[in-house]
Amino acid sequence: MCRQKRGIISAMLMLLFVTMLSGCGKDKADVTMFIMNHTTLPAEVVDSLETSLNDQFKDKFTVDVVVAPTYSHQKLMVEFMVGEKSLILAPSEDIQGYVKNGGTLPLDGHFDSSQYPTGVMDGIVVKEEGDSKTNIVESHLYALPADALAGLKKLGLPADGLSLVVPVHTPNAEQSMEVMKVLEGN
Fold it and tell me: Is the dihedral of CA 91, 87, 53, 151 positive or negative?
């Protein structure tokens, strides 16, 4: 009987702990930037980035920065497939695969592709004609190499080997582009 009570109390405490960790009660930000790197990022760098972006967009929208504690190809795949992230900063070699499979939006209309030649790749674009949709492979600027983003480097984020993209499932492409412009720093 006593073991059963301890088990129930343990389960309730575990549930409470998981609920606290999941951020229940926290308002969802308008823009969420997901960062995955092969190394961990110091919390103060992440906090500095989030604070800086929220200060920049104070009267327009809110920004949340989420960092994966460890590198996981499976977690990155989930974020591209079904995640609702606005921006993803991840290793360039991973980004290339998601671009080729249509996981990112073209950036040509917002950024000068001649400034980011390594971000120009062949990727799938969905063309709509009437009621039908067709996947077409086209060359566009899909990724901004992090080492070319002055605003990102200024905030102390590691940039080597990372690229910044807007996933196709972004909740608001225009807000995502606005944040990218700030991170570009030009």
Answer: positive
Residue pair 92/120 in contact by the 8 Å Cβ criterion: no
In residues, how long is the chain?
A: 186
Rounded-to-integer distance, Cα 87 and Cα 32, Å: 7
Query: What are 6's two structure tokens?
Result: 């301890």
**pTM beyond 0.85, yes or no:** no
**30, 172 contact by CB (below 8 A):** yes
Each residue's pLDDT tens digit, 50-79: 999 999 999 999 999 999 999 999 999 999
Listed residue (51, 55, 76) closest to 65, CA to CA: 51
Token duo for residue 157:
């984020």
Nearest to 87 by CA among 185, 180, 160: 180
Angstrom distance (rounded) from CA 72 to CA 64: 20
Residue 169 belongs to what H/E stretch? none
Span between the terminal Cα atoms of the chain, in Å: 67
| Strands (DSSP E) found in 11-98 | 31-35, 63-67, 87-91
Percent of the chain whose predicted confidence (pLDDT) is above 70? 85
